[in-house]
Amino acid sequence: MSIRKTAARVAGVGAVATAALGLFSTGAANADTFVPLPGGEITQTLSDGTVVTVKLVGESANISPSMGATPVHRNAWVSASAQVHISGDTTATGGKIFPGYVVGCQVTIDGGNVNGGATGGASWDSQGNVTPQGGVNSGANLTLGPGQAKSFYVLDLEQPDDYGHEAHKTRNVFKGTDGSVTWSDETIGLNGCAGYAQARSFVSVEVETDNVISWLTLWGQPFSLG
Predict the structure, then answer these.
(1) pLDDT score of 16
(2) Which of 133, 154, 204, 212 is the most exposed place for a label (fewest CB within 10 A)?
(3) 159 falls in which pLDDT band (50, 70, 90)?
(4) H or E segment to which residue 167 belongs
């Protein structure tokens, strides 16, 4: 199952999906586990005085027994809201928000970088900033072996390109000083991992001014997929 968002679901400065957080259960033997997560906040002042604040709020994960009912299958539903605010003496007129998750099988994703490498997703610099790469798919049906990690984006926005052909974007563009992306009960489906599995959210933001183009990334707290 892939995660898809259409351009019609982009409203105002955010791609908004109604929040639905809670504990779901199908019985004591296979009850879901609701995991509240702390989110986070970072603020960075760019070289020209632009101040960028990125927040991750209302973050949670709901871990459930897989429909596959085997040790190599995991299922989770994740929710959060990424919020960006631009201030200071700046010529910035908006930015781009790339929300996503890193999923690892028997690999540590505690630090900003992902030890053991990450494939099919994004590249990390020494400060833990994520740079989206062309060809990265959204959607969270992942197959991982021991020591592997992959990343995916929450958004898959359909829109015509300059020639009228269908194009897919993994970011939300906002104008002005504030932007957001909110997602609810997006699926992480993991197959093939017989060992310990983790996931971790990230929000990468691009801001462009007359003098500088800057990337910054906020990482969420890692959580277990079982």
Answers:
(1) 35
(2) 133
(3) low
(4) strand 166-169
5 burial level (CB within 10 Å; 0-12, 13-18, 19+): buried
Question: How many Å from the N-terminal Cα to the C-terminal Cα in the chain?
Answer: 20
CATH number of the domain enclosing 101: 2.60.40.1650
Q: Which H/E stretch holds residue 168?
A: strand 166-169
Q: Which two tokens stand for residue 33?
A: 């586990």
Mean pLDDT of 5-11: 33
| Residue listed under structure tokens 């209302």 | 58
Distances (CA, A) of 18 to 9, 30, 76, 207: 11, 26, 18, 26
The model's pTM:
0.75
Q: Which two tokens stand for residue 184?
A: 């609810």
Instruction: Tell me the DSSP string of 52-89.
Output: EEEEEEEEEEEEE--TT-STTEEEEEEEEEEEEEEEES
Structure token digits, residue 152: 């995916």
Q: How many domains does the chain have?
A: 1
Residue 55, domain extent: 7-224
